[in-house]
Design a protein that fits this description.
40 strands; 2 domains; Tachylectin-2, Chain A; five-stranded mixed β-sheet; mainly beta; disordered N terminus
Length: 645
């Protein structure tokens, strides 16, 4: 599985269009960049009190936006503000990937532009429910008696300080607006200290509406000049609080109309950024595009919105986050359909699927992927009621903590549910350090207890090459006997003892397969026929695919149909390396699904060999011909629709 032949190495060079960055080591990011598939636009709509409230819109491409909740507020301004209105919402995903921070101007324009002294800090873990706190600069910190206004706060994570830096403009009587900052406390309910000066232009004239984005270690501060010729400028630094900024004298807006409230975001799976700003005298936004954050091209003709926003921000979100939003506020009528593949967010591979009769839920048990050279050391489980919405149940087996005989290369698990003495038990077989172990539990999500030793740690007699990896467990419905299959470059099988933790002596045998067999055996039974599925080629190859054979016994021999491809990639769709599968039968129905991994879309094919350990899990329908042969599966981005029990 892990050794790549010379001809394949040459083939992969042809596909290595873009070299992969050094893959992450240790703990993976909470969310992989590939999983940011949609966008959330947070905004307000005008100067009337009822318009000064937080609203949401969503987009699948960063160009076409659709409002949620019928363009009505998603947060009640009166319950979170001291003035009855909020403006200038800025939203940020936290450094942990799963906590969200929003900051707002606590203000209603009906009371005057110099009427506010406060901002609002909000925190959420689901984008739906928010905890809020009002921070009144004037009353919280002495020496602010002459403070006139607090405008347009924003937040950025300062990695150097390991804190969230809140920045905003302040104006004191007789002076210009300047951009200040303070760090938020741990709970994001207050500021740790009085505001300090973050930035003032060398002209020493007013500036407001700061927006900071980091690119390649450089922080870019976009801001509005206020008392000179109004417009958007940018200054850069490598240290947020150093006070050392390099200013670009050019105005960046691509219009002669007055603008404010600029905001920059990066397009998903792209090296392009969008700079947008509020053309407030015209009641519209202008969108521009850039790669270098210096040169901007107007793309207004590509933008569509079914609402008229004022000063807001856009943040990439995942499909599961979008589903939470639409579950609360409905899906816009014209919103494009959302794909259900990959079914799991993150990098995962070698999926094993199970329906639990105990919990009446579906489970996927994958390899934790995304680690350099398949070096992951833990296993997770995911649960679902409908095959489209999957809950991360967390780590169920950690080699470093739970296994005494191996602590590396956690690969390709499989699981079986058995009823023993009236109670359901779960036996989880897994690869660790190129050996196969087994752990057991009373529940499908654990905790699992390792048996204490490797179950398979030597090659079968007569085998010199390959690896002892990729277990598959199968119970014969005809006899009730359970079998363990395994092997890379060979297919081996042995009968399991009734304890499911040991192999029946002298039961190990080899099953002959043709030259297409590489690894990933999966065995199933339908209408009395035994189907053997396996993967062909190397998991790093774009041509990795699944083939099958049929037998009258769980021990073979295998007959191989003339056209025996189960699933293979579709390059024109950007789908590559569809392999190492398992199969799910819906209970009591002749309804089947195949679960498999592929190169992560759309970036995996550009990673070279690293595409083989940056994989994602997908699920599609599996169908049979009238003669019992398998119809070749067409892998899809759409996936399957949610099923009803």
């Amino acid at each position: 599985m892990r050794k790549i032949p010379f001809n394949l190495a040459f083939f992969l060079v042809l596909f290595n269009v873009v070299q992969a960055q050094n893959p992450p080591k240790g703990t993976l990011p909470v969310i992989a960049d590939k999983d940011f598939t949609t966008y959330l636009f947070v905004y307000f709509t005008g100067n009337k009190v009822e318009e000064e409230a937080v609203r949401y819109a969503v987009s699948t491409d960063g160009y076409h936006y659709y409002h949620l909740n019928n363009n009505k507020p998603v947060i009640d301004s009166k319950t979170i503000s001291s003035t009855g209105g909020v403006r200038d919402p800025h939203i940020l995903r936290g450094d942990d990937g799963k906590t969200f921070y929003m900051v707002l101007t606590d203000m209603t324009s009906s009371k005057g532009w110099d009427s506010n002294r406060a901002m609002i800090l909000l925190k959420s873990t689901d984008l739906v429910k928010w905890e809020s706190s009002v921070v009144n600069i004037q009353t919280a910190f002495p020496g602010n008696e002459n403070l006139k206004r607090v405008w347009a706060p924003q937040t950025i994570y300062d990695a150097k300080a390991a804190k969230y830096l809140v920045y905003f403009s302040l104006q004191y009587a007789g002076g210009p607006d300047k951009i200040y900052y303070a760090y938020a406390n741990k709970d994001f309910t207050a500021l740790e200290s009085a505001p300090k000066l973050l930035f003032v232009p060398k002209s020493e004239k007013a500036c407001i509406d700061g927006d900071i984005i980091e690119k390649e270690g450089v922080y870019h501060l976009f801001y509005k000049t206020e008392t000179e010729k109004a417009g958007i400028k940018v200054a850069t630094t490598t240290d947020l609080t150093s006070g050392k900024w390099i200013e670009n004298d050019d105005y960046l807006q691509q219009t002669k109309d007055k603008v404010e409230g600029s905001s920059v975001f990066k397009l998903n799976n792209s090296d392009e950024y969008i700079l947008m700003y509020d053309v407030y005298t015209k009641g519209k936004y202008q969108f521009t595009k850039t790669k270098d954050l210096e040169n901007f091209t107007v793309i207004d003709n590509d933008i569509a919105m079914d609402f008229n926003p004022r000063h807001g921000t856009i943040m990439p979100i995942t499909r599961s986050e979008l589903k939470r939003l639409t579950a609360k506020w409905g899906t816009p009528e014209k919103f494009p359909k959302i794909n259900n593949n990959p079914v799991l967010e993150g990098y995962y591979a070698d999926p094993e699927v199970l329906y639990s009769n105990k919990t009446k839920k579906y489970y996927i048990y994958p390899t934790s992927d995304g680690f350099d050279g398949w070096s992951g050391n833990y296993f997770k489980a995911f649960s679902s009621d409908n095959l489209t919405d999957w809950k991360d149940e967390g780590i169920i087996l950690d080699l470093r903590k739970d296994v005494s005989w191996a602590n590396r290369n956690a690969w390709a698990p499989c699981i079986i549910e058995k009823k023993i003495k009236g109670k359901y038990k779960y036996f989880y077989y897994f690869t660790a350090a190129q050996k196969i172990g087994v752990a057991s539990s009373d529940n499908p999500i654990g905790p699992f207890t390792d048996s204490g030793k490797a179950l398979i740690d030597t090659k079968p007699e007569g085998i010199k090459g390959g690896q002892e990896i990729d277990p598959d467990v199968f119970t014969d419905p005809e006899t009730g006997k359970s079998y363990l299959y395994w092997g890379n470059m060979y297919m081996a099988v042995a009968e399991l003892n009734p304890d499911m933790l040991s192999i029946k002596k002298e039961s190990t045998k080899l099953i002959k397969v043709d030259a297409t067999f590489r690894e990933g055996t999966y065995v199933m039974n339908r209408n009395g026929q035994y189907y053997f599925l396996w993967s062909q080629d190397d998991t790093r190859s774009p041509n990795y695919k699944v083939r099958y054979g049929i037998s009258k016994s769980p021990l073979g021999p295998i007959e191989i149909p003339e056209n025996n491809i189960v699933i293979q990639g579709i390059p024109n769709e950007g789908i590559y390396a569809t392999g190492h599968n398992s199969v799910l039968q819906i209970p009591n129905k002749d309804e089947w699904y195949i679960v498999y991994h592929r190169f992560s879309y759309p970036t995996g094919i550009k990673m070279g060999e690293a595409g083989g350990f940056h994989r994602e899990v997908c699920l599609d329908k599996l169908e049979f011909n009238q003669d019992g042969t398998i119809k070749e599966v067409v892998p899809t981005h759409a996936g399957v629709k949610a099923i009803k029990k």
